[in-house]
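[job 0412] stage=fold_complex status=start
inputs:
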Amino acid sequence: MLSLNQVVPQRTWKPVYSFATLFLVCLAAILPAGSADEKRIAVYSTSATYSVTVVDRNGREYTGLFEILEPLGTVTSRTDGLHWKVRYNDADAEFTAGKNRAKLRGRDLDLPGDFLLESGRGLVPVASLNAMLPKILAVPVAFNEVSHRLFIGNVATHFTAQLSRTNPQRLVMNFTAPVNPTIATEPGRLRMVFNREPVVAPGSPTLTFDDKVIPSATYSENNGTAEIVISGSVPLMASFSNEGHTITIAAAPQQNAPLPPQANQPGTSAGSVNPPSGTAAPTAAPSGPRHFYAVLDASHGGDDPGAALAPQLAEKDVTLALARRLRQELESRGITTLVLRDSDSNLTLDQRAIFTNTAHPVVYISLHAASAGRGVRLYTALLPAAGENNGPFVAWDTAQARFLPTSQAAAQGVAAELQKKQIQVRTLAAPLRPLNNVSAAAVAVEITPPGTDVLELNLPAYQQNVATGVANGLVAVRDKLGVPQ
Amino acid sequence: MIPRHLVIASAVMLVAVFALGIYAGRMRGRVTQSPPARDARPVAPPVSGPTESVTLYVANDEPGALRAQAANIPLPSARQQRAEEVLRALLEVYLSKNSTHPLAPGADIRAVYLVTPGIAVIDLNSAFANGHRSGVLEEELTVTSLIQTLAANIPDILRVKILVDGKERETLAGHADLSGFYDVGAVKQLASQLQNPQ
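[job 0412] stage=fold_complex status=done
writing structure:
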């Protein structure tokens, strides 16, 4: 049932709201802190990646043996007084509470601490895993006791990092398996946290590149996670490619955010960059000469296929193909272009908006595909009920508000160029995130089949025609976007 | 010695019990195997009240447009129930055989909550959202149709929130944003755009 408290007017319930908000903020602050402090072991195997908790007993770290074995095979356990027996596939192990000697597959093993039995749960010293698990599992096991990372079998993901001396310079990181780390940008560095991937250290934990923009990268491990921190003298951005095997780090382009007519009002700044739950801070746009910089966003991806356009054709694949064609078209016209999703990877709507706002592009183009209709539909944001701006902080849900006239001008320019190519065009507003969160001109392009067959969406010639029209349209309105000729 | 007729009677009864057991077992199997029939029973009592004329904003997928359509439906006097009935009348159009904007079978409005001043909350059932076709325009037509129909027939609604099964949801079917409150004025402008497809 809906609680009416959720929607009652703020005027009547303001004190209740304030108290509830304060309570929730406190709770939110406490809960993650508690979970972050919880010690755990990350377990990587060919069949599953998971984590188990670590508890402290008698000044020593312990973990549940059953919990470690359960995802790996058939496991049963039996408690008989002080004795605890566990069977993994065909291997038996016997332990006695309070004793530091166990019997594994009929052979004795001395443990670095006593075995503990708590409510039928068998706890073994964490320090015993390196010796114990190979005997039970009968496969090679590598356990890093300091960082709490347990590798069962040959599962490690290695990586190389190489500085590409192109212009602009880029750090290209190639991984032996697809990765999808959590990425955070901080002043002077870009941090990638690998919570689920068995990424292991390179030869040296610190890599230096003899470069002023990206001087070094540091690898570290702690509490079941691996982390790579890339230091930079300028704001950095990461992009994925090669089906998640490659992460490219490059300097975020340094130019002003496009200035809508209202932007010169005193007391306003470039505004919202992060969603309310993020590390919200108003970020002033960098100053300097304006540069035509576009962000392309191939919608959906990874676990989110988007619309099922045909049995073998998902929206995410069409948008990715179109994004790649459009990037080529834009770059051939001298427009620097970043494709947010250049592989079949997951990106949340908030992440798409954060990456875009951090990059300060002149224009953001979101790409969609649909089976119904003809030609191309262009959308600008239909803003939700007004959020409350607070000084330089702009409401996340309506960050697009000041840029809407510029977005509409961009959409009209693109529509005109597509019509010149005999492509049917329709321009509408739409409640389509993250358009409303983007603090730049933002347009969504939805392509539909040129004819009756939905598979025509995948025709290279058709996609190329649309990409050329969109690129021409953006060039045609560059002055309205604030880019000098 | 047991009389012969008793032996025969007992044997007949045993055979009958055995046969009935097999029959009952088969019937149970059929019940569990047969797909559940769609429950066509109304979830709310029939509406009583005088018939009134309402305006429904009905989506049409072919041109991708909204069309205002008059309908006469019985409406109760209570404002909240009127809101629910108006939207159910709209859904009836979408669930009909020749619908111009078909919704998934079982799609329904669980409730509409009206909270002063000017806030309406439309609670859709999960069949509505989970079975909705994915696409910017398809989803936009549905959302605009619901909000514009509600606002056109229930005065003084300024903002609308859409829930699914009583919970917040990010999008209707991958595109139309359900995370915030819709501004009825902005939706009205969009509805007029959608009534004039280029």
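[job 0412] summary: The domain at 40-152 of chain A is CATH 3.30.457.10 (Copper Amine Oxidase; Chain A, domain 1).
[job 0412] exit 0
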